[in-house]
Automatic annotation (TrEMBL):
Pfam families associated with the record: Zn_ribbon_9
Gene3D superfamilies cross-referenced by the UniProt entry: 1.10.287.1490
Entry keyword Coiled coil: yes
Lineage: Bacteria, Bacillati, Bacillota, Clostridia, Eubacteriales
Keyword line: Coiled coil
Domain C4-type zinc ribbon: 202-233
Domain of life: Bacteria
Name used for this protein in its record: Uncharacterized conserved protein, predicted metal-binding
Coiled-coil region(s): 94-174
Length: 252
């Protein structure tokens, strides 16, 4: 195997790495997801603040009802005291006091029912607020976790691209100028200039290569091209001999 071909394939691998790194650097999907998470956070935060405001209003209403309940109880207790201790046999006074006490009892019942409803609503809101708080924590954690991983991925791609460009320049000085120019020319047509041979198949065009071309690649010390696409062919000697499929000859 021509050593220049191995170096040419190494150049190709580094160009492939640059291509993949550029894809990562141009990929805006992580920015979209971060914006989406931020939007979800803002929505959840708004709901959280609104529910907290609602809870404060409920507590305020409950405090007001508690004051009204205390006043109604005091009024009823006063009227009951008058009924049992002051009215005596005054039927008119007794009737008025009993009527007032019934009204106060109904008022107390209505206020107590309203207070119970407020307590139920308060419990529901507290649960909803806690759920929203946990959601905010979760979104925030996901945001910073994804941001950190994305930043690491982007930085890794940037460093790999710099290293690949440096490696290409290093290899470029070790191969003939004409070979590098040919690689550049082939890459102007396609992203792959040097293709690995897999069995009898060109890794570039995925088509079968002739036996003669394979023999040239194995035995000669020159640059060999694919019969079909014209790419420079390379095969990895460490993988062993190339497996070929021979057609069985039909005897006459």
């Amino acid at each position: 195997m021509n050593n220049n071909v191995e170096l040419a394939y190494l150049i190709q691998e580094n160009y492939d790495l640059i291509k993949e790194s550029k894809k990562i650097l141009r990929d805006g999907s992580y920015i979209y997801l971060l914006k989406k998470l931020k939007s979800e956070f803002e929505t959840a935060k708004k709901n959280y603040v609104n529910r907290k405001t609602e809870l404060a209003k409920i507590k305020q209403s409950y405090s007001a009802i508690s004051i009204e309940l205390r006043k109604e109880r005091e009024k009823m207790e006063t009227n009951e005291y008058k009924l049992y201790n002051k009215a005596g046999s005054n039927l008119n006074m007794i009737e008025k006091l009993e009527g007032a006490i019934e009204i106060e009892k109904q008022n107390l019942k209505n206020l107590e029912d309203e207070a119970v409803d407020l307590l139920d609503e308060e419990e529901k809101l507290k649960k909803e607020i806690e759920d929203l708080r946990l959601k905010l924590v979760n979104i925030k954690d996901n945001f910073y976790d994804y941001k950190e991983k994305s930043s690491e991925k982007v930085e890794k791609a940037r460093q790999e691209m710099i290293a690949a460009k440096t490696k290409i320049e290093e290899i470029k000085s070790k191969i003939p100028k004409e070979l590098f120019e040919e690689i550049s020319h082939l890459m102007s047509k396609s992203s792959c200039a040097v293709a690995k041979l897999n069995g009898e198949i060109c890794g570039g065009c995925r088509m079968k290569v002739s036996s003669m071309t394979i023999d040239d690649l194995i035995n000669n010390n020159s640059i060999v091209h694919c019969d079909n696409c014209g790419r420079i062919l390379y095969y990895d000697e460490s993988e062993g001999k190339i497996k070929r499929k021979y057609k069985r000859k039909i005897r006459a």
